[in-house]
Amino acid sequence: MPLRRLTARDRSSAANWQLASLLAFTAGTVDVSGYLALHQSTSHMSGLVSGLALDFAHQGVRILIQPAAVLISFLVGAAFCAVLVNWERRRKREGVFALPVLVEALLLASLALPWATHHPLLTLSCLGFAMGLQNAIITKISHAEIRTTHITGMITDIGIELGKALYWNRSTSHPPVAASRKRLLLLTLLVVLFFSGGALGAFAYPHVRFLLMLPLAALLALPTILPLAADLRALKLEY
Fold first, then answer.
1. pTM, to two decimals
2. Cβ pair 218, 47 in contact under 8 A
3. Fewer beta carbons below 10 Å: N end or C end of the chain?
4. What is the DSSP string of 52-96?
């Protein structure tokens, strides 16, 4: 499949899952790197909200500043993605999904600059915003079928497909319950890629710090070039 199809306006199921694979790997790397740098997960909100409740009960309000900043940034990132995608859709842009992916790439690349080591709260906010933006991208692309920044939904869907596969269709009077082996395989792949990205973060971050974000940003930016270039050409023709 052409590289431009990963983030282009015209979608296919294969392009959705391929983009999800790249994003799941990115999320795993970002989450582990953020935790090693600042002892805070940034890609999944379930654990973060549980941690908020626990910390509030034992240590009071002041300890909530850091996780609350991540939570709010994640929310704002998702909202920003929705605004951006809808704005692009109204104008029938080819890069309707490429633009938010490029924004995420630029955010991650910015963490390689020296400021990231001097402003922990800003760094966490940047990571949370990027993960909220990313999760909203794949949610809108797949019509809420795929997630990439947390494993809970993926494991749940894997369990559902396994349950379908184990179901004994004894009656012929009802449509048979059948598992989708393709979906089961793809969901498992996303979990493996998230784990692989996390393992990369665990091994590489202690040595290169946030410079690790640069190759990730390049991988994300690459499939956005052609759709966005098409939009730029169209704008030039308009004027």
1. 0.90
2. no
3. C
4. HHHHHHHH-GGGGHHHHHHHHHHHHHHHHHHHHHHHHHHTT-TTT
